[in-house]
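hey can u run this one w/ FE3-S4 cluster bound, need the structure tokens asap thx
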Amino acid sequence: MDLTVDEREMLSGRDGRAVKKSMEILTALGEIYGAKRLVDVASVQIAGVSYDNLGDAGLEFLDEMARDGKVKVFTTLNPAGMDLLDWKALGIDEGFARKQKMVIEAFAKMGVVTTCTCTPYFVGNEPRPGQHVSWSESSAVCYANSILGARTNREGGPSALAAALTGKTPEYGYHLDEARQPAITVQVEARLEDIVDFGALGSVIGKKIGNAVAYIVGIERATLDQLKSFCASIATYGGTALFHMRGITPEPVSAPETRVSVSTEEIERAKAEMDGSGRVDFVAIGCPHCSLGELEEIARLLRGRKVKRETWIAVARPVKEQAERVGVLGPIEHAGAKCAADTCFVVAPLRGRFKCMATNSAKAVFYARSKNQFETVYAPLEKLIDIATS
Ligand code: F3S
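ok here u go:
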């Protein structure tokens, strides 16, 4: 790779061990993927924050990097394994909480903004079109590339941290124009009503075309909440980091001749496959983390009701604080639902605690089954609130 003088000096250890290690990670990645150079990044989002996923080996790596590493660009975190303030209310044990706090402290020592969310674009980490960033949460990567028009590969936790400590990332993959061109046109013939439909669509397309860049046509309109759900789903089921949607996403591209279509029957089949018949003991909303608009809708549906099953609503802490200021949090908490900030029901240590999880997220269905062996019920928000309160 063609490194600048400054980059060479970072690699040789001028700025300390963490920066040297980071440059080693980035140049090794660049060599593997044929990058010609490093580019500056505007922001970083780091996944691999939950102690449930990191374990002691991950914590040791972070402590090592935190000895002399300091971030050079605005950097936020993916959800942690617990609400950093109200972890007891979520049933997290002390031993786990102690380790999780050590993880967060290591990031804080490096200057990372320790807001833990998979929706960094709701909390100020919102790159502009064309900007290079280094993000690692798969749904956020897909959102950054597709909806915001920024440029990032699907980074791992260590390579994103390396980008944060150097302000650089190797220029390959989705940083380059050629990799951002669509390879296949996906004609959506189904009418999509709500988030559950968009989640199902993501699973159908993801399974059909894998991680090929799709040019999706046939969707007339979509809300940002529907798109964030779609991003999470297509990234989970297909490994997708970028798609284009005619009339909706910002990059001008033309339709490839290779075509596939998605029918209403396929969407219905996907929904039925995710929607089991177990007895729900856990209602999980907010994958990806809820927007303020979604919290308003939940508050409206919960007003005057009480939840009778464990119900978590996952959210970024700044969004929870906003909700409190505008009077939306009160009705949710008054109903007995737990507004779980900083975390989510996939990265929290929940194995063995529940048997059947109801959710409106296709991504959450995937991980509830594969990681936690829960049965799942897949239903729109109104039905979830009916289940939670019955
Ligand atoms: Fe976010 Fe957790 Fe879902 S990180 S996308 S809420 S699995």
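The first helix runs from residue 5 to 11. anyway lmk if its weird
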